[in-house]
Amino acid sequence: MPQLNAIVVTDNVAAPHTFSPVEINGGVALLVESTGVPVADRRLTLKTDRTQNGRRKVTVKMQIPVVQDVTVNGISRPTVVRTAYAESTLSFDETSSTAERDQMFWMFLNAMGNEDLTKKLVVNLQALF
Fold first, then answer.
1. What is the CA radius of gyration of the chain?
2. What is the pLDDT of residues 1-56, one digit of tens each?
3. Model-level pTM?
4. Please, are residues 46 and 71 in contact by the beta-carbon 8 Å criterion?
5. Which residues of 37-72 are buried (b: 16+ CB within 10 A; e: fewer)?
6. Contact 86, 62 (CB under 8 A)
7. How many domains would you assign to the chain?
8. Which residues are bridge partners to 36 per DSSP?
9. Which one, of 32, 24, 27, 25, lies nearest residue 6 by Cα?
10. Which structural domain, as residue segments, surrounds residue 23?
C-alpha cells in the first residue's frame, strides 16, 4: 500500500508543481499546491474503492482555480473567478492482473497526451468530425 507523500507534476512548460498531503478523509486523499491563500490552492484528490458489483475503482481529480483580487468598498480580497476540473476514473474487474492494469494505465496516460486528437479536444476545444 503506497504511503501518501508529496508529488511533483509538471505542466506544459515543464514547470514543477508540488502537491503536498493535507488529509485523508472518508477514503479520499487530498493534496494541495499551496499558494498561501487557501481559496487559490490547486487540489488533487485520490480515491480507491469498490463498485457495487465488486470492481476495483480508482478516481483521480484535479481542480485548478483562477483567482483575482476583487476590491469592494475599498477592501481587496482574493476571489475565485473560474475553476478548471479534470477527473479520471479507472475500473478493473476483480480477476484483472497487474499486467492488465499496468497496460490500461499507460495506454490511458498516453491517450491523454496524444497531440493529434486528445490535445486538440482539450486545449483547442475543437469538435470531432
1. 18
2. 678 999 999 988 889 999 999 999 999 999 999 999 999 999 999 999 999 999 99
3. 0.86
4. no
5. eeebbbbbbbbeeeeeeeeeeeeebbbbbebeeeee
6. yes
7. 2
8. none
9. 32
10. 7-94
One-letter identity of residue 60: V
Pairing label, strands 42-50, 16-25 = unpaired
Query: What is the C-alpha to C-alpha distance for residues 45 and 37, in angstroms, rounded to an integer?
Result: 19
Taking the C-alpha atoms of residue 48 and residue 59, their distance in angstroms, rounded to an integer, is 6
CATH number at residue 87: 3.30.380.10
Distance CA 60, CA 108 (A): 13
User: What's the N-to-C CA distance of the chain in angstroms?
Assistant: 43
Same domain, 110 and 60: no
